[in-house]
Each structure stands twice: as C-alpha cells, then as structure tokens.
Amino acid sequence: MDRSLKLFLWCLAAFTVLLLIRNASTPLWDQDEAAYAGMARNMWESGDWLTQEFVWAEIHRKPPWHLWAITFSYQIFGPSEFALRLPSSLALLGMFSLLWWGFKRDWGERSLWAAMILAASFFAPMLGKIALTDGWLLLWEMLCLLSLWRTIRDEKSGYWPIWFWVGLAMGILTKGPSIILTAGMACLLVLILHPARRNIWRLHPWFGLPLALLPLFLWGYIAWQRDDGQMINWMLDWYIFKRTGGTVLGQSGPPGYYLGTILVAFLPFVQRLIPALGGLITGVRRRQAEDLFLLAWLSGSWLLWELIPSKLPAYAIGAYPVLALLIARQFEVPVKGLLGHKIGFGIQAVLSAAVVVGLIGGSYYLWGWMGIIVPILLAILILGALLGHRFLKTSLLSNESQKAWVPIIGGFGFMLILWLGLMPGVSALREAPIKIQAYLKNAAPANSTIVLANVQGRPPSLPYYLGETYDSFLEQRDPATLLGLYVSKRPMALILNKDQYQYLQQQQPDLPEAAIFPLFSSDRIEGNAYYVVVNDAARTANRK
C-alpha cells in the first residue's frame, strides 16, 4: 500500500468518526430534517414511496431521492435518528473519496489535501450530520464536474460522459433543476473559454440531457396520476417560479452573501483562500487550462447564485470542492512577504475574533459562566489553526504543503469539541417534543387525538416524536373550539400556549394543572412554552 493511499484511509477514518459521532443521540433539527424524517417514516410504514405527507411538512417536499434513501435506511435499521442521518453521512464520505480519487492522476497529493481541507471546513461536514438534501447534492455535483474535467482532459473520454449524466440525473432527482444551472453554466464557460472546448461535445447532450431528465419525469408522471398533479404543481410554483423571481420565507440576501458564508466555512484556511482566489484570476489571465476549468466550475456553483434573490448557505455548496482544490494548491506556495497572505491573515483574524466572541457570548447567555468552558476550548483551537504554523519549527514542517496539517487538525478539533462539548447542551434546550411524548405516553391512551393548538414555528419534530405513539393529529387554535374539544367524550391531549391555557382555566375552573415544557430559551421569552392538558375522557381511558 503506497503512502498516499494509507494517508487517505487514515483521513477517511477520521472523517467517518466526525460524521457519525452523536448522530444517534442528537434530537431532530427543525424544520427540514424533522420534516424529512416524518415523510420517510410515513413511506416506511405505508409502503407508499410516492406520497410525501406529514404534519407541518408540506413546504419541505422535494424530488424523491433523499426521502427514498432515508426510507431504505429505515427498512434496514428501523426509524431512528441514526438511520435518518446515515445516508447523508455516506454521501459526504463518497464525495470525500471522489475528490481524492478523481483528481489525484493530475494533481497528485494536492487532491488528498483538498479532500482533507473540505472535511475540516466548518460547513460541509454539517451536511453529513444533519439529514438535508444538500449532502447528496454535493456528491452529485462533484460527480458531474469531475466527469466534465476528465471528459475534456483525457485523450479518450471512456465512460466519463455517462457518469456526467448519471450525476446530473441523480442531482435532479435529489433537488430539482439547481444542478442544471450549476453544471450548465460550467459547461457553457468551458465551451467559451477552454482550449479543449471541442471535447465537450463528447458529452452528446442531445442524448444525455433527455435521458438525465427521464427519471424525474417518470416519477413526476406517476405522482401526477396519484393526486391529479397537485403536488407537482405546488413544487413547480414553490421551488422554481417563486425562488427565481423572488424569495420565500425571508430567505434572501445581497450579492456577496455567499462570499461571507464561504469565509466562515473555510475559517481555518482564509489566509490561504484569499491568495488562492487571486492566483486563480492570474491563471485565467494567462489562459491556463486548469484555471479556466476551475473558473467555470466556480462560476456555475457560486457566482451564479449570488445573482439570484433567494438565498440559503447550502445553495453554493457545489463550490466548496473547487475552493478546497484552490486552497490546497496555495499550500504549495511560500507565504513570506506576499500581500495576499497578509490580507487573508487580517480577514481570518477578524472573523476568528467574531466567532470566538459569538461562541462565548451566546454560551454565557444560555448557560452562564459554567457554559463558556467549551467555547474557550474552541477559541483556543481557532487561534491554534490561525497562528500555529508561525510558532512551529521548520524541522516539524519540512515543506509548505505540510503546513496544511495545522489548520486541518484545528478544523477537525473544532468540530469534534463542538459536537461532543457544546451540542449536548444545545440538544437539552431542544428536547421539549421528546419530553412531551414521554409524558403523554403515560398520561393518555394511544387512541387519543393530539390537538396542536400551540403552532409557534410549526416544528415537524413535535408530531414526529408524538407520532411514535399517536396516529391522530388535529390543528386547532380557536379558543371556543378548543374548549369543545376538551369537554368532548373522545380522548384528547391538547398542546396549548399560555393564553389558550388561561382561557380554558377561566371556562373550566376544575381544569387540571398543565404540564409545562419550555421551548428553546423560553426562560428568556415569557409564555414561550407548551402547556399540555389531557381531558377527562383520556384520563378515564388511560386508567382502564
């Protein structure tokens, strides 16, 4: 086994640990992850892999691949937080391996450094620890752009054009047309700028694109037959028309939004990122083939999204592998005396200070003085990644590339302490749905109707955990109707806010004391809690 492969396997093992740690014990994250968990559990229980339905989850419906992957995981392991997140973790591990293997022929050890830099960044690993569609999308975009690179670079394209269209088809089946914009812009710029532009016709788009769209159309046709097109029409309106022409749910930002997220995501490497982007511009001016391709990749996966009004951090996730490649290349360049590195170091120092202040201030706000111990450890790691290479002797870092170890270890250490030290405290603040489920399991029979009257945020995690015991849910906020439900002869468990509970107290003097479950940071926001009341019919049935 050669040195490069051995080092890759060690790094893959470390990345696997980072991705899987606490995946089985962290409560569901609202909104998206909990919605996917609920829809996939419905698919698993019903055997209907077409219908995407769950309480408070309508706005999270997507093309089906991510839900199918979760449902398949449920088939093997049963519904759980670990089974929910495992497919996303595997997608990130696949992307990590593909980045190393796909580019090592041309870039040698740089491809391994790039894979490790991406694994040590502050955002990409999150996509393997939270079950979002973006982990899979990153894998498929990586496959598309790698296939495009090999198609235009190799003397014979082999099977790479097929893999390009496979990646595009799977990306469309995961998150709709966004990957068409990313890959399409990259192909267009390669066709305009790259000296090997003629090789792009090896992709045979007149055959490949219809075939890549076929799986989505087949799924869409079958789903259309199921509900007369209601779900498909809703998706077209929500994910295409509204987002390309405007924003939804306040998901917007100015041009430069993604530059800010990238600087934070690659915080341990910003000193190298700034001159890396400058080096790319220089290479493009010199018409270097490698840089022209990297510019095409970066434009389709990042710069294009800066122009679209609807914005979320994950929209530009396809740019992260190419940024990691650029940073890895920069680690081959000495830093002494270069203006770009000085500017990068200044930006990195300011951002690091802001992150440290935010971590410590937020932890003190939530947990007091005892809560800032972990953020201080995280701050030390940030400072170590920022300054460590300046204090290590040359004998320990015999060349510029080996200096990449310092921020890589800092990034990995930061993420580990974040998930092992800080996230347990954050999880404890988000356990209201789990505690309500445990309380009602002993207080109301399984045939009770759960009345969702406190709809603050409509978190799908609440019906998800309650759905482990109960099948019937009713959303109702009108106070008079809530009173009628409470006095009905059917078993009812009412989840109320403070005002609704006080109204029922006024109308029903014998109303039992509510079980109160604070929401996140509700000790700082008066009334921000769930008030849970079980009616007489439920209490009587439960005693029997």
Question: How would you describe this structure to a colleague?
Answer:
There is one protein chain. The radius of gyration is 26 Å and the shape is globular. It has a five-stranded mixed beta sheet, with helices on both faces. It is built from 23 helices and five strands. The chain has 544 residues and is mainly alpha-helical. Helix 20 links the parallel strand 1 and strand 2. The protein is 64% helix and 4% strand.
Quick summary of this structure?
The protein is mainly alpha-helical. 64% of the residues lie in helices and 4% in strands.
Spatial extent as radius of gyration: 26 Å
- Report the principal-axis shape: globular
Total DSSP E strands: 5
Mean of pLDDT:
87
Helix content: 55-70%
Q: What share of residues are in beta strands?
A: under 5%
Helix/strand order, N-terminal first? HHHHHHHHHHHHHHHHHHHEHEHEHEEH
Structural class by SSE content: mainly alpha
- In the sheet with the most strands, the strands line up as 2-1-3-5-4
Total number of helical segments?
23
